Every structure is written in C-alpha cells, then in structure tokens.
Description:
Number of strands: 3
Amino acid sequence: MTAPRAEPAAAPQGPADADSHPPANSSSRESALPREVELLAKLFWTVPEAAFIARVGARTVWRLMADPDSGFPKARHVRGRTLLARDDVLAFLGKEAAR
C-alpha cells in the first residue's frame, strides 16, 4: 500500500483566511433590530415584533398569551403564523402603564 501524495498549498494560509464568511459591513446592531416606525405602520405583529415594542422578551409575550388572567389580547393564527393585532397590543400596554 502506498501513502497518498500531499499537494503543497498554492498560497500560505494565514489567520485572515481562516474564516470562510466575509466580514460584516458594520458592527452596529441597527440593521438587525426592527425599526419602531415601520412596526407601528403594520396592522399585525409577530410575537418578536410585539415583544420589541413592549420592551420585553418574546418568551414573556408567549407567557402572557398563555395566561388567561393577564388580559393580553388573543392571537390570530394565519397560515401557521401567530399574529397579534397592533391596536389590541397597544391598548393592553396603555392599560398596564396606567397601573
């Protein structure tokens, strides 16, 4: 049995060549987060969008939806998506802020 031949590398690979993904354009998270102005224009929000507006985690929104005593608005299910009416969520947040 013979040993396989190792071909030499065409160019030396340094630390810059270690990552196969190109670097990000900027380090800010601005593009990753939704814009509040754009969300307020939508009639229905997903759970993460409602959580962003309410300044809580998505898990907290799911817990509020599961708790019948919380008074959180009912979700609507459209083609496998869970959507919340914008006006209902804003009304709920207004009542909670008044407490």
